[in-house]
Amino acid sequence: MARPHVLVVGGGFGGLATTQALRRANVDITVVDRCNHHLFQPLLYQVATASLSPSDIAEPIRSVLRGQDNAKVRLAEVLSVDPARKVVHLRDDDGTEDEVGYDKLVLAAGASHSYFGNDEWATHAPGLKTLGDALEIRRRILEAFERAEWAETDEDRRAHSTFVVIGGGPTGVELAGAIAEIAFWTLRKDFRNVDLSKARVVLLEGGPGLLTTYPPELQERARKQVERLGVEVRLNARVTNVDEDGVWIGEEHLRAATVLWAAGVKGEPVAQTLGTELDRAGRVKVLPDCSIEGHPDTFVVGDLAVYTHTPDGKPVPGVCQGAMQMGWYVARCIEDDLAGRPRGTFRFQDKGSMATIGRTKAIADLGFLRVGGLVAWLLWVFVHVLFLVTFRNRVVVMVKWAWAWVTYERASRLIWRPTEHTR
Questions:
Q1: The 3-state secondary structure of 165-220, one letter per residue
Q2: How many whole angstroms separate alpha carbon 160 and alpha carbon 143?
């Protein structure tokens, strides 16, 4: 008799947590992802700003699951889900399409960029969600310095040495701080024609404060820390257009050759095929057991899920700890179903949140402790190294961070273009 088939869509924190929690369950698991790797997204900005290489924060999913006999991996993109028939429609890496049935589905497809209806801005202001995004942003940042070096006019030189980051959340603050460190410290002696002390890094936030999920005192501390790095913070600055020459803030035009987007996210399009209620960002409103209305065997976890069944009614945050806890819980639900037990109750345990701003600059809200500066930065370093998926990743990242601490160097300052030929 065939064992129940659990289909896990997405090899991120939520999908991987579910899969690994079912390693001893009497089920067959198929993990489907359009990428072959698990990505540690909290450090993706460090790839984008030349501190780390892609392989430092990513690991092949097959490698992670090589010791789990009940799990297989399929490189494919899920195009749609039919919960009534319990099938998914997917497209394999070679372009062929297929339908795959399941007994239990765990949809952990994540989220992508949201330009709030202005998708044409994406060409001029790339977001940061994948390794491809990170490499493209790294290329744009490093090429901007090269072009500033050989610009023919002062106006062009200023434009190429001006960097605009849109969005004052964690990704935006981290990007802006890292770019400032590159300009004012790492590269300041590498160029002859351009004075990088005059480079400009501008962080635009449409609301009244940065990192608005943190307490007001930490928000203010973060603003002061990022400004001390040389970043120009502009609050209540609503972007009305992005073009090849820069950014429009109302009627004001800010010329910049490099514009980066960190202002919004939306659920992956596959969520729209479920036939269930979504929020304004296209994420799935799940039931208390992380399933969807009318289909108890179809679960949604991670960034794609909106879980508001908490004691205070606040949604589970879209961070790795939330995705992992939802994944572990759904794995228990599946085991409860197989054993004929009622499903348990999901209880999210908020272990706090942290955001890094730059060298020795960070904030941390652990509930019982709210700190900033060096202490928060050390906590951030410890936690992020701890959650890297393999020991190799942890060692490599620690070595590179230690070298950067001593030398102010960036380990991965290579400009790479997808169409570049080997010479």
A1: EECCCHHHHHHHHHHHHHHHHHCCCCCCCCCHHHCEEEEECCCCCCCCCCCHHHHH
A2: 9
Q: Which amino acid is at 276?
A: T
CB 261 within 8 A of CB 127: yes
Contact indicator for 163, 148 with CB cutoff of 8 Å = no
Residue type, 119: D
Q: State the Cα–Cα distance between residues 9 and 300, nearest whole angstrom.
A: 9
Q: What stretches of 210-319 show up as alpha helix (H) in DSSP?
A: 216-228
Q: Which long-range contacts (CB under 8 A, 24 or more apart) does 371-377 make?
A: 372/218, 372/221, 372/222, 372/225, 373/221, 373/225
Residues that are catalytic: 174
Half-sphere exposure of 65 (CA within 13 A, CB side): 28
Please state the φ and ψ torsions of residue 228, each to the nearest 5 degrees: -65, -25
Give the C-alpha separation, 230 to 272, whole Å.
42
| CATH numbers and ranges of domains, the chain | 5-113+265-339 (3.50.50.60), 119-262 (3.50.50.60)
The end-to-end CA distance of the chain, in Å, is 57
Q: What is the DSSP letter of 325?
A: H
The answer to whether the beta carbons of residues 341 and 324 sit under 8 Å apart is no
Q: What is the pLDDT of residues 158-179, one digit of tens each?
A: 999 999 999 999 999 999 999 9
For the chain, give the percent of residues with pLDDT over 90. Answer: 79
pLDDT in tens, 333-391: 999 999 999 999 999 998 889 999 988 899 999 888 899 999 998 999 888 888 887 87
pLDDT band at residue 2 under the 50/70/90 scheme: confident
The secondary structure of 74-130 as a DSSP string is: EEEEEEEEETTTTEEEEEETTS-EEEEE-SEEEE---EEE--TT-GGGGGTS---SS
